[in-house]
Amino acid sequence: MEPLDGWLRQIESGGALDRIWPEIYRHYGYEGVRVFDVHGGTAELTFAEGGEGEPLEELKIVARPWDGVIGRAFNSGELLEVRDYPRHPDALPTRSDFVRSLLVLPLRFGGEDHGAVVMTMHTRPHPGLDAGQLQELRILQSLLSAHAALRRQRRRNERQRGLVAFMDEIHKINRLDELVPVLFRSLSRDVAYNAVAINFIEGASLRILYGVGESGQGPRTIGEAIVPFEKETLTHLVFSSGEPLLIGDMTDPMARQMYPVRTLDPEPERDEPELRSFLAVPFESRSTKGVLSLQSMRPWHYGLEDLEHLVSVAEVLGYAIEHLRWRGLERFARRLGQLQWRAGEEREFFHQLLLATSEVWNQLGAAFFVRETQESPFERIAVTGRVEWLPRRLDPVSLHLEQPLMFSRFRQLPEVFQSLWNPEKMQGGLLLPFGEGFIWLASARGFTEWDLQLARSMMREIRPYAERLGLQARLAREAALDPLTGVYNRRQLDQQLARLASLAARHGHVFSLAVVDMANFGSVNNRYGHLVGDRVLARVAGLLKQALREEDEVYRLGGDEFVIVLPHAGREEGLHAARRAAEVIARDPELSHYGVHANFGLAVYREGDTPEDLLERADREMYAAKKRGLTVLEQPLDG
């Protein structure tokens, strides 16, 4: 009993058991030992020494405890001694070639299987154990069983503490993309794996997040993709059934026949070892459904305990997803409420509004486009992130935007928006209407139906600001326009000329303007009345806008005089614009009926010019052209 006393003290002290396994099998006259740790219906070989035909480096193999003689011992729960193993009816053919005798100590406690100690003879049959030795082994079996049950309970407690720690970490993070490394760390702590995938099923899309790495080291996040939800995958099988799935060995022919579907390879280009075990559980929240899956290179690596733990993790994951998504919307609304709209600081407000969207999405970048009217182009007035490819302006288009639009491919975009897409960087775009403009969000990974749903919720938050922008734009438009002709008024002309003169002085830009006088207009008022005269002036204004370039602008100076401002145009471009406008006016039948035609006077910006200098010089040229019976002077008065 002296060796037994030492073993019992070693077990009771909680020391490492690897030291006693060699002593046990040698003491009872055996040549080798195999120790299995059972959890969830599978048994993992945790220690091996001795034995012919079974290399010691293959310690990672996994056995099924219900097979053969070992299975018989598990079913009975009793110590089992087999002296002539090859002749035993339950002997496994693969082992009978080199095992002569076998002794199995199944470890069972509280109605659960916890493992087995298997001693083997290979060179000759074992002579058998006497009654005293068998009694010793039964005492050892009882203590080892209790010790194994205690270790299992400790493991369960550690996993429960891991779940509590996982929930605590969730409340410290703010974004969905921050959840992934937290989840990976939690899994790495509690369940060994070589690959992990979180699949968010959102409508017809599957958002996949992959991680690979050895357990305990933390996973390496290797990518995220949004792909069509394909039915030919194990993920779809788990999702459609709503039940967990555990496959002991995916390379086994029986498993291939039972599950003739494929798994998504996270890195097909990498020369990774073949993944064998597969464990997946579904999860669900109010806004999304999904599948959490683990894979291991070791066959029969996962058991029922792992499955039960992963089910608990999935429940926490579903809660976390819902919590973080709506928390992002809450932070967006809170940040929006802190913004202040001050006159003259609209661009900074829009920039802050774009930054607020990053509370919801980890986006590649965002841009704010706005236009004055549906006929004017969209101007880019604010950007955030890496969006250097975005255009400064978009062509005007008659487009009524009331709801967010989601795009996953370039071809889905209306032509006017196609310049917003960068095929080298983007996988998705989201457009949020905002008054006479829109917010454009670019994503490197894409958007799904959930993001579209969230964008609709955000629209309710930003609608008051959009309405304010629309009201402000309308008031500004009304203040800048001449109510009779619909072109810009004298006040707006002064502001534009001051701005262009400042730009020209700083950067050397050239620009010009033309004063337009409607000859014979006084007779229209005298002969036909002021109502007809007003209609004629509105007609002239419309024809001038029609004849000019997109960047040129028309202003009413007063009475029957107009001013055309021509950015980036010198004398030659100005002459060309005047001739074109005069021709359009001359061909108009209504103006011809009243005998109205136009005279033009040009002035090109010179260094030091004020707006008044330009208008005075253009006015002199217009009167000189009118006096000489010309539409416009080919050469300036001052040479």
From TrEMBL:
Domain of life where this protein originates: Bacteria
PROSITE patterns, sorted: GGDEF
Pfam families linked to this entry: GAF, GGDEF
Residues of the GGDEF domain: 509-639
Stated name of the protein: Diguanylate cyclase (GGDEF)-like protein
